[in-house]
């Protein structure tokens, strides 16, 4: 329920909304820990074997906490000279400082730490609670079908050219499908991840049984049409329609690029890949892009990509490009988690009059706020999870685990591509769901390994 709710209140990108998301994760985690202390809950293999990821997440959280710990000015001067100079420049307002912090805005860093702990709790809970096959199926189905409801709502609002007030924010649905997100690019990021989970479910349900006769083939075809697999396939069509009507250039590029990359990797790595898997992946590209998409705006999307000018690209790249001097000034530790909106104005040229609270590039923003050290720690978590998913495709025979491994590989790849020009990981709902995608990589490798 918590994960289904997260996208609804503007992607949980409001103070009260992300507080519900994070607070809910803490509550469930606390309840699980009580059950564990009473020996009513067990530590699954996936949770136990994901300890390297938790070490890196713990180190990243400790780094964030270190940013707002009061330190002697000499220490801050040594560790972050620019931060010390910036705080020393305000002494005429505050008087001489006995202590300083590495963060140029300690309160923003405290908020960022709470969010990080909440996302880590989601990662932990998925590994702890999705601990058998039925729960894997239930969790994946809930995520996909909730996304389908979002997709239907988004497309209908778009086709009706509505401007709807949603939780106090006006969302212009007429220009593009945006669902419950104010920004269509973040809605596209949500659909990328949920589509990956849906494709993983489809792969999990495939078999390599061949029909010996035309009669048997027709019987199997009718059985497939009447089975839940057909509902899932139609659901994926809805998600592709919704993604196409977002008219998000990088969102759609990331989705289809990730589908092809994950497809090739899955076929190359999986010793147990079936012929039907190859057919399914080919049909996803051909049917969804050329047939379904052509009816619901792929031509508009193509026209928008074709009409993209150098000025459009420069506008999207400007915040990230102007962030590079900020990263150079705070190379190792960053200016402080959550402080981009405070630090960036100093590095913004006079020609840029817009206010940017994000860098429109997750890599640049994380490096600016938490330094190369913080970016490396988070990158390690993602890399380890991706390796786990790829290993699962190599060693697992279980179709469900191979399907979830594919979902994790594709979801991670899509967000990594999309993050170059957008800030999906700064949107609480998308960040939390990305942690679910990471957790699926560990689950696909370690769940029921005795029966692999």
Automatic annotation (TrEMBL):
Residues 236-378 form the O-antigen ligase-related domain. It is found in: Membrane. Its main location: membrane. One of its GO terms (cellular component) is membrane. It holds the Pfam family Wzy_C. It is a multi-pass membrane protein. Keywords: Membrane, Transmembrane, Transmembrane helix. InterPro entries: O-antigen_ligase-rel_domated, WaaL-like. The chain crosses the membrane at residues 15-38, 50-69, 112-130, 142-161, 187-206, 218-242, 254-272, 279-298, 372-392, 404-421, 427-447. It comes from the Bacteria. PANTHER family: LIPOPOLYSACCHARIDE BIOSYNTHESIS PROTEIN PA4999-RELATED (PTHR37422:SF13), TEICHURONIC ACID BIOSYNTHESIS PROTEIN TUAE (PTHR37422). This is O-antigen ligase-related domain-containing protein. It comes from Usitatibacter rugosus.
